């Protein structure tokens, strides 16, 4: 076990039930410290093994020249195991850049090329990360990418290229800048020499994303990364992390503050349906109410955040409708409902306020889209087609098929 002199904590970077990541400074040198602190007595006995496994994986990969932070030390302090790593300085989480929480440190397409090259290196080096997503990738101002959080990494295990790329694309496809996935795939092809079909990968990524979202809707019914359990002012329930605790009592009203909608549990089935639809839309980044509070007591109710909407039939434009329908179609879904299920936001965008989201994998089946134009008595003109294509994030071939189907539906 290598030791390192503890320094003063400068910044808490990440906290969780099992691990805390901080930045500490020793003699003017900044380092990253990952402390393992599983809550249960039985789990706590595994902390040493987890820390040692990640330390050894980092050491091996760093020695092989793969972009990972260099392990500095493995130590035990205050009864807890800690992994000390080099500080990568201004590198930021790819997830934070995608979410707009931090500026892109370098042009996104340069980062995409670096990411594609890294994925090719993982395949060539038989390295399976085990938990590869945008939150476990750091990027810096030189467009370099680094892998972190290697607790589940396996080295010397053959890695199939297609599942790796599909998994990464599924996590990126609804929020990455235009051309990002295409640039990453091109870089992967150059580095690996593998000729993978972009349309096949995109279709599989879309289907994977739908399955992930369907599974993760459960997060909105319990304490999770989406909501936390709060009890304040005699009210108990789940509340979005970005809202202060005292907001829970303010939202527990039949007439909540402006910008929020209360759904009373007159029918638990209706409440669950609306809550889950909003959760799915949020995870798919579709224009819809955001689920912010699920109140358990004293009276069960759901609270959703949304601007004041007027009926879409009032003055929605064909381009605004096409943009929303295009986003739904891009997710491999279709919306079934009535004209009243769409609303118009103050900025002119069309929001989903009702109806049912159903799976719809057929790229060139636009019958449901035409039905919505007819319900709202709008014309699917060329501007609407451009808006619909702009909302679709698939391949160029997908766009050509959509345009042809659009013209056929006339």
Structure in words:
- The protein has helices spanning about 40-45, 45-65, 95-100, 110-125, 160-170, 180-190, 200-215, 245-250, 270-285, 310-315, 320-330, 365-375, 380-390, 395-410; strands at about 10-15, 20-25, 30-35, 70-75, 80-85, 90-95, 125-130, 135-140, 145, 155, 225-230, 235-240, 260-265, 290-295, 300-305, 310, 335, 340-345, 350, 355-360.
- With about 400 residues, the chain is an alpha+beta fold.
- It folds into 4 domains: about 10-85, Phosphorylase Kinase, domain 1 (2-Layer Sandwich); about 90-195, Transferase(Phosphotransferase) domain 1 (Transferase(Phosphotransferase), domain 1); about 225-305, 2-Layer Sandwich (Phosphorylase Kinase, domain 1), CATH 3.30.200; about 310-410, no CATH class.
- The chain has a 5-stranded antiparallel beta sheet, with helices on one face. Strands 11-12-14-15-13 form a 5-stranded antiparallel beta sheet.
- The longest helix has 19 residues, at about 200-215.
- It is globular, with a radius of gyration of 24 Å.
- The chain starts with 7 loop residues before the first strand and ends with a helix.
